Amino acid sequence: MPSPDNALQAGIYARLSGYAPLTAALGGQKVFDHVPAKFPPPYVRIGEDTLSEFDTKTEDGWDCTITIHAWDFEKAGRKSVKSLLSLIFDALHRQELNMTVTGFALVEIRREFHDTFQETAVEGSSDHYYHGVARYRVMLEPVPDVTPVTAGGWFIGFY
Fold first, then answer.
1. Number of neighbours of residue 52 by Cβ within 10 angstroms
2. Exposed, middle or buried, 11 (CB in 10 Å: 0-12/13-18/19+)?
3. CA distance 154 to 134
4. The whole model's pTM is what?
5. 91 class by beta-carbon count within 10 Å (0-12 exposed, 13-18 middle, 19+ buried)
6. Fold for domain 5-158?
7. Is residue 116 scored above 70 in pLDDT?
C-alpha cells in the first residue's frame, strides 16, 4: 500500500481551498504549498508534516501531523491571523465527513495547538508580519476492501 502523505496534503488543500468562508477572508484563492515570491498577505501555506505507521498484524494505519501557516501584514494586526486560524479550525477540526483523502479512510482530524507571533518581513526592516501556526493530528487507515467472496457461485460474505 502506498504512503498516504501526498493524498493527505491533496485532501487538506482541497478542503481549505474549497472552504468558502476562508477563501472570502483571504480575498481569493490563496492557499499554497509553495508561496510565490513576493506574494502579498494574507495567505495560508500547507507546511511541514510527519507520518508514523501504527500497523497491526492484519491492518495498516498511519498517525500523521500536518502544520498549517497563516500570514497577514502588521496593519491588520494579530486579530486577522487569529481569524484565519479560526476559519482553518472550522474547515478541518473534526470534519472527517467533509474531507476526502483519496485511497484512505480518514478516521480523525483534530487540531493539537495553534500559536501566533510577529516576524520581521526583511531583516532590519520596520515592516512586520503576523504569523499563525496550527498543527493538526490525522489518523488514516486503508479503504476497506469490500470485494464479495464467493465459492461455487454462492455468496459467502465480504473480504
1. 9
2. buried
3. 52
4. 0.86
5. buried
6. STM4215-like (3.30.2000)
7. yes
